[in-house]
């Protein structure tokens, strides 16, 4: 659609947090939607407004004033909680709502029950669910929602600012060592116990893999305790701002998660030209195809063997890195996703107007998004 086709179009963006790539996605897409002629306003917690979204250049309102979304042409909620909070308001005001499901629900316990309840409310209250991975799309459809795939792209990774060898020297990595990097929040979903299981099986002698975990989170004390107790060749670096430099220094990357949707860290790894070993879970297969080395999340012995083989074969590592670069080159960019969203908004709004005036029957499957997603 052209800018004039869209006309004045008010979009209310609602989010309750920034984890799981939500904050980065909203911060990237909002300015692009505004450039396309849409009028955007964000509702979010105060710490989000002064943090990741501080520079997006659109008005931001607190969740205490969420009733203001009634004046929008369409509401776009990000995540189950934001969608559930918005659902009664959009229902009473008859404003259509698009919801992006960015993450799966928790694996067990009370958190899973809460997540399942919020997901059910979201599915019932959304005119259209956009899942970042095929399994989320299928989950929404099983709950009766109209749902399509729309992946969340990472921004183009910044270039490394330092050469490989000085970075490795500062990290204490010898030239003959194979450096395996993991960029992840230290949380249960990332399954970092599997990484430690792998590290315990791949040796400690010269030329053996050395593992770096970049990120922070609640499991750091537990992981550090085990690393110390077992004297594992693993180092926790905590939060870092030099991810491009660290990726440039790595020989391999490893992701051990029990679930990923459209992981930004994974996308950045392939953009950096680092061969990736990753669990075959969630949306990984659709995102990555045959451009990575696959492992199972419950098979540390098999995963360790794959790491050992790649560590001993620089030609295979180079081939894996090249495959990743080719795959990354085919992903949609931020601008493409913004245009896709703008099209979705208008389709949803126009469809809702037609339903209200009795011009059409059951809600449609919205075409287009699925074809834009990787391997959809």
TrEMBL record:
UniProt-annotated stretches for the region Disordered: 348-376
Q: Does the keyword Thylakoid apply?
A: no
Provide the protein name.
Glycosyltransferase family 4 protein
- Write down the superkingdom of origin: Bacteria
Any coiled-coil ranges, and where? none
Return the Gene3D superfamilies for the record.
Answer: Glycogen Phosphorylase B
Output the Pfam families linked to this UniProt entry.
Glyco_trans_1_4 (PF13692), Glyco_transf_4 (PF13439)
Name the UniProt key words of this record, in alphabetical order.
Answer: Glycosyltransferase, Transferase
Ranges for domain Glycosyltransferase subfamily 4-like N-terminal = 20-147
Kindly list the biological process annotations in GO that this record carries: carbohydrate derivative biosynthetic process
Q: Which InterPro entries match?
A: Glyco_trans_4-like_N (IPR028098), Glycosyltransferase_grp1 (IPR050194)
State the SUPFAM superfamilies in the record: UDP-Glycosyltransferase/glycogen phosphorylase
User: Which molecular function terms from Gene Ontology are attached?
Assistant: glycosyltransferase activity
Q: Which organism is it from?
A: Microlunatus elymi
């Amino acid at each position: 659609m052209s800018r004039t086709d869209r006309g004045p179009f008010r979009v209310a963006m609602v989010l309750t947090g920034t984890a799981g790539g939500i904050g980065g996605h909203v911060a990237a897409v909002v300015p692009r939607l505004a450039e396309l002629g849409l009028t955007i306003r964000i509702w979010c917690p105060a710490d989000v407004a002064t943090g990741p979204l501080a520079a997006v250049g659109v008005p931001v309102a607190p969740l205490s004033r969420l009733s203001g979304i009634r004046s929008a042409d369409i509401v776009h909620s990000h995540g189950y909680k934001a969608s559930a909070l918005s659902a009664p308001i959009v229902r009473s005001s008859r404003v259509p709502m698009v919801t992006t499901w960015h993450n799966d629900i928790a694996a067990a316990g009370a958190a899973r029950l809460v997540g399942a309840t919020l997901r059910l409310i979201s599915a019932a209250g959304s005119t259209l669910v956009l899942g970042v991975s095929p399994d989320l799309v299928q989950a929404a459809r099983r709950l009766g929602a109209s749902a399509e795939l729309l992946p969340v792209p990472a921004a183009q990774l910044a270039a490394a600012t330092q050469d490989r060898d000085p970075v490795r020297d500062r990290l204490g990595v010898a030239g003959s060592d194979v450096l395996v990097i993991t960029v992840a929040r230290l949380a249960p979903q990332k399954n970092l116990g599997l990484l430690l299981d792998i590290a315990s099986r791949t040796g400690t002698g010269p030329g053996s893999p050395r593992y770096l975990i970049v990120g922070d989170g609640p499991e750091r004390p537990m992981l550090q305790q085990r690393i110390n107790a077992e004297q594992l060749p693993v180092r926790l670096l905590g939060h870092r701002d030099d991810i491009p430099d660290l990726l440039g220094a790595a020989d391999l990357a490893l992701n051990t998660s029990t679930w990923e949707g459209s992981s930004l860290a994974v996308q950045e790894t392939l953009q950096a030209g680092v061969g990736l070993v990753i669990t075959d879970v969630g949306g990984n297969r659709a995102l990555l195809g045959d451009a990575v080395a696959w492992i199972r999340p419950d098979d540390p012995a098999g995963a360790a063997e794959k790491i050992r083989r790649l560590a001993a074969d620089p030609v295979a590592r180079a081939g894996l890195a090249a495959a990743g670069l080719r795959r990354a080159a085919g992903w949609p960019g931020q601008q493409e996703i913004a245009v896709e969203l703008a099209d979705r908004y208008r389709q949803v709004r126009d469809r809702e107007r037609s339903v209200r005036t009795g011009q059409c029957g059951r809600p449609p499957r919205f075409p287009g998004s699925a074809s834009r997603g990787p391997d959809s």
